[in-house]
## 1
Amino acid sequence: MTQLRGYFKDKTVAELSRQVRNQETSCVQLTQAALDAIHQLNPVINAFVSLHAGEALQTAQLLDREIAEGIYRGPLHGIPIAIKDNIDTQGTLTTYGSHLFRHQRPTADARCVAQLRQAGAVVVGKTLTSEFALGPTGEFSFQGPSHNPHDLNRVTGGSSAGSAAAVAAGMVPIAIGTDTAGSIRIPASFCGVVGFKPSHGRISLEGIYPVSGTLDHIGPLAQCVEDIAMLLEVLSASPIGRMQPTDEPRVAWVDPRSIHDVDDRVLAGCLARFHAIFDAGRSTVDIDALIPTAQSAFKTILLAEAYAVHSVYLQDESSHFSRELRERLAPGEAIRAWQYLNALENRKLLQGQVTKLFETVDLLVMPSTAILPPPFGLKTVNINRVEHPIREAINGLTSIWSLLGLPAISIPACIVDGLPCGLQIVAGPNQDEKLLAWLAALNIQV
């Protein structure tokens, strides 16, 4: 659908930043370009749920005056950015995708938003999230679903649905999302952009409505790996390591079918992309023995922590919780303390085992999702002539890396029948910069 191409489609932050610094374009011009693209495309995509046009243009005018005075805040100076709607923005609507919070205007910015504003980014609006950021398809929000820019009849993936769609359609060059089970990497894969989940705790969760406190992550979506690295530098809660790899990474392919059945077309496309990118240092690694424990621990921790967050609302039948969300969270009520504690302990054991694995390999590679973006309304999906629940088919390959808190990125792998699918690359504990530097050094074209 070539008509769904906003101004920022295929434009990188590095390119735009150079233009701003050299006064070849102005911050106001970039902000207006974003607003124009949103007005043009959002009625059919539904990526944005609120727009901050007046505030954004005022901020851009201030940033232009700073440039004229020789003040340059860095590569995000004057760059339009979108913020997922489960992240607080001072004085502007933040609904968490729920009717319960449809009128809420937070009194303070989330920590990550404050950092972005300080760096000169211009917040143009809030992007659609699945209700309370729970939902891998991006179709369950009180503001309706986001539509995939590649095919409006298909889902974007979730829960950072609007953020991925906004970048994919070129409404903005960069956006911020959150990821608990794959909510950045899944929509990045389905929409054909780059999405990065950093190490757990690398970006502050202050001002984010929680899904699961020990599984939640914040991360960026963008057109290229280099833009992701710029955002990490601004948002990182710990010192940035300027680690430049001197050797090619030791790379291992993980057969995703040990985790979940995968569409043969997706598997073939991702394998071809893997071989095209990593022409040296390749091997395969077997993680089959870890999978059952990891899947069980993830499910227990997610349901227990998410139920604790929402228990008051779930017990109030009059609250405006969708049936979809009630049904998903209900099993959390039955989880006992010993089961939750055992799951936490199993996660520690798994993290130790995976840390040892990364002594012999630098990067693990597999598809981001087991399927292509599906049509709206499916509860199950046919994969190689076998029916699977849609939720597990979508987040099965991403959730274990959220459990382990490892840095993981989804980059575009290929197009199958006009639809994108992503390649997921995972690095060892706290190797965020090294992962991004390796990919940048490989000059990967996405």
Note: Residues 1-446 form a domain with the Amidase signature (AS) enzymes fold (CATH 3.90.1300.10).
## 2
Amino acid sequence: MPLWLLNLISFLNKDVKRKFIFDTQSKFFLSLMPKFDIHEISDEELPKIRELIETKRKNLNLSKKTKKVVKRKDHLIGESKDILIREYIPYKTDNDNVILFFHGGGYVLNSVETHDPTVAYFSEKLRTKIYSLNYSLSPEYKFPYALNEGMKAIDWLESCGINIKNISLCGDSAGAHLAASITHHLANENKENVHSQFLIYPMCDPSCDYESHELFKEDYLLTKKAMHWFWKKFQSNKKDELMNTFNLLLHKKSVKLPETIIVTAGFDPLSDEAENYAFLLYESGTSVKQLHYPSLFHGFASMTRLKAAKKAVNDFLSEYKKIL
């Protein structure tokens, strides 16, 4: 349906919060999606739900395809060679830096496969090699299991001759949390850190106690109940809450992190905590930039067939390219 017709239909039924209007095409798209209460799913049902989501994501074809061929090459890493990392090689690369990418899904859902079109699109636009890690999911593998696998991925990249100063970390939602968790871990250990981090609507604080969680607690794809459920599945014990690799907002203001870009969406429950994290990094002396897209929702980065989402993604990738 043409966008002008959607705008005409919704003219008298605008969704306005914080003085911004929810993108019309996104609103119609989300209204067509079946309601899915992930927080009501039992642990026994999760494997089937993951398979279903992976199949549905492929069939929905939400991401724009690349204009040119982006080559894929799968590698198995780790002591037992059981961790998949997928390499994306664009038709042309502009620099010696590479990106280590972590998919979102609350640490419970999704995979390299669900984010394959998105990562390929990123690689083509950035003209940069990307390595996408298929980290282990919760609740089978709780915190800090994925963090340790992320460190193994960095070690593997270094064994391939890539210096850590040439590795940029990127992820969306839980994947953004994992990227930041790694930079915090390296800083805690006083080790050489990565080149930069690009965090797309990151989950940051397990409390979920922000105005945005109430304003956008339902009807915008990600719900407040789902976020509480994700954190619960991910957490190993109460001690996790005292660690800045778990709760990012516990990061010490005296510790400077690599150059950071944080993407936030206006109609996203996580927008406030991500903005607080950006300000915390600013206070620590970290070079940080927040890119805010007030009319969009959590998950838009993987939905570039929506016009506003594609425009926003192309915009934030142009900003990312500047620091690579």
Note: The longest strand covers residues 288-297.
